[in-house]
Design brief:
Elements lengths: L1 H12 L3 E15 L5 H4 L6 E12 L4 E14 L2 E17 L3 H30 L12 H16 L16
Antiparallel strand pairs: 1-4, 2-3, 3-4
C-alpha cells in the first residue's frame, strides 16, 4: 500500500502543465494601394480571401513558439482594396506533457489561445486603414490539424492515423 501511495503522489507532483509566457507580433503588413480613393469609392461588397496557417518552433527543452500566419485580401472587381499579413505568436512552457499529446496541444490548443488576440489586431489594423473592421470567424484548429494529418499521410502513402505493422514495430 505504501508503494501505491508513493507512486500516486509522484504522479500528482508532476502533472502536465501549459503556461503562456508571452505574446508578440513578428510581422505586420497592411497595404491600401488605392488610398484615399478606395475608402471613398462606393460599390458592391468586396470579395475577401482569408488564409491561416500554424507553425511551431521549439525554443528550449520545454519552451515552444507557436505562430499564426493570417493573410487577408479584399478585392472589389479587379481592384485590390487592402492586403494584410500578420504573423502573431505566443510562447508557451509545456511541462510533463506526454509525447503522444504534445503535437495536438501545440497545433490546436495553443493557437486557440492566441487567435482572439491576432483577430483583434487584424480588426484594428483594417479599421485604422479606413475600412470596416475585419472580424474573422472563430477557427476550428482541430479540423485544420486533422486536414494536415490527412494531407501528410496522403503524401507519404500511409493511412491517416497509423501505419500497419508486422509485429516488429516497423511499418510494412
Amino acid at each position: 500500500m505504501t508503494d501505491e501511495n508513493q507512486g500516486g503522489a509522484t504522479a500528482q507532483e508532476n502533472p502536465p502543465s501549459m503556461n503562456m509566457v508571452g505574446q508578440y507580433i513578428r510581422d505586420l503588413s497592411f497595404e491600401n494601394p488605392g488610398a484615399p480613393g478606395s475608402i471613398m469609392a462606393g460599390g458592391g461588397n468586396p470579395a475577401f480571401n482569408v488564409s491561416i496557417s500554424v507553425a511551431v518552433k521549439k525554443q528550449a527543452d520545454d519552451i515552444y513558439a507557436v505562430e499564426l500566419t493570417l493573410n487577408a485580401k479584399a478585392n472589389r472587381e479587379a481592384v485590390v482594396l487592402f492586403n494584410v499579413e500578420l504573423i502573431y505568436g505566443g510562447v508557451f512552457r509545456l511541462k510533463n506533457v506526454p509525447e503522444a499529446t504534445l503535437s495536438q496541444l501545440l497545433m490546436i490548443e495553443c493557437p486557440r489561445l492566441i487567435f482572439p488576440f491576432a483577430r483583434q489586431v487584424l480588426a484594428s489594423v483594417t479599421q485604422q486603414g479606413g475600412f470596416p473592421p475585419l472580424m474573422m470567424e472563430p477557427v476550428d484548429f482541430a479540423a485544420i490539424y486533422r486536414q494536415n494529418l490527412a494531407k501528410l499521410a496522403a503524401q507519404q502513402g500511409a493511412a491517416p492515423l497509423a501505419a500497419p505493422t508486422d509485429g516488429s514495430g516497423k511499418p510494412n
